[in-house]
Amino acid sequence: xxxxxxxxxxxxxxxxxxxxxxxxxxxxxxxxxxxxxxxxxxxxxxxxxxxxxxxxxxxxxxxxxxxxxxxxxxxxxxxxxxxxxxxxxxxxxxxxxxxxxxxxxxxxxxxxxxxxxxxxxxxxxxxxxxxxxxxxxxxxxxxxxxxxxxxxxxxxxxxxxxxxxxxxxxxxxxxxxxxxxxxxxxxxxxxxxxxxxxxxxxxxxxxxxxxxxxxxxxxxxxxxxxxxxxxxxxxxxxxxxxxxxxxxxxxxxxxxxxxxxxxxxxxxxxxxxxxxxxxxxxxxxxxxxxxxxxxxxxxxxxxxxxxxxxxxxxxxxxxxxxxxxxxxxxxxxxxxxxxxxxxxxxxxxxxxxxxxxxxxxxxxxxxxxxxxxxxxxxxxxxxxxxxxxxxxxxxxxxxxxxxxxxxxxxxxxxxxxxxxxxxxxxxxxxxxxxxxxxxxxxxxxxxxxxxxxxxxxxxx
Length: 460
Known about the structure:
- α3 (43-56) packs antiparallel against α6.
- The chain is 63% helix and 5% strand.
- It has three domains: 2-82 and 251-281; 90-219, Helix Hairpins; 283-459, Rossmann fold (3-Layer(aba) Sandwich), CATH 3.40.50.300.
- It has twelve helices and five strands.
- It has helices at residues 2-5, 12-41, 43-56, 70-78, 90-138, 168-253, 257-281, 283-305, 341-361, 383-387, 403-419, 437-442, and strands spanning 314-318, 323-327, 332-334, 369-373, 425-429.
- By secondary structure, the chain is mainly alpha-helical.
- The strands form two sheets. A three-stranded antiparallel β-sheet has the order 1-2-3. The protein has a two-stranded parallel sheet with strand order 4-5.
- The two termini are 44 Å apart.
- The protein is elongated and about 165 Å long.
- Residues 257-284 form a coiled coil.
């Protein structure tokens, strides 16, 4: 709104943009100058500190005259590169860990085989012991020799047995079978012992390989730690070299300090000139003055329309809240506290007409037309009464309209257009039809009745 009212000059927006850009650039240049001045003030102490850090990191070992050759030495240090390349043993460690895993698996497998062989020997020894005892018991039958033995009677009392005892021949066969099994078990024992020995040898060999692999892994881990420490030293040295490079770049910036100061002074003058131009406009004061002029027009029109507070208050537009205020002797009254649709309509009408008058008087870039839709509706008892109009000139009073108030409204519109030499066009869409020559002459077409409408019925 300040622009359309003319409280700011046409190129103010450009001036504001220029002020913003130059102020930002000025702050940047001043910051650069302050950084350079800080570098200059701390240059010697900073250079000596960096040189000592480079020396402690092992980048240099020679003594340097810090009063003469310090900057040149720092330039050489900034080009430092590691003296040897570092290869990470990470992949080799992974391979070695897999080898150890496989060896441990083989070692466990051999241990299982050894336990199985030892268990077999224990079971064979148990079988042999039991078999020997059985054979010893069965040898008692040899006292009978090869003679016939009555196995159905007791040899002591000669009574008949309920269950016949085994024959001597069957017991002798059982004894021979047991003796053969024992002999076979004892013949297998040397082979089993040899197999067990071979398993133990293989287990020992795998254990040795596992020990070697673990030692190799420990060696690789140690190498990795050494590489990590050396890499950390290289990183530390590279960081120092980078800081020295940054320091040397700051030292170079000191060479253009005079040019930088000239640029700061030049832009400072530009910003000062822009600030003076913008402050000289006094936008708020000018806007307040314009609104006072518009408020006088609004008050005059409020009296013409006989609004509620028109004769004891001054009407004005509050540009910040975009509302109308009536300044009464007691207090300011906002439009939303005035009450009645007639007052609200009147506030809008006097504001719009007064603004357009000012726009035309000051040749502001605002279109010179105003469209009002059914403004007289507030002067009827209800919307139904308003819509009951048949567009004739003699039924306003019948519909309960305040004919005088409606006439005042349209007379104000006609007078405003006339006072502005018809440079303002007001378009009114209205049901009311006043029996007045000016009103009738202003009609651009016949009232819409019967079949006459915005969209003809033969189009439908």
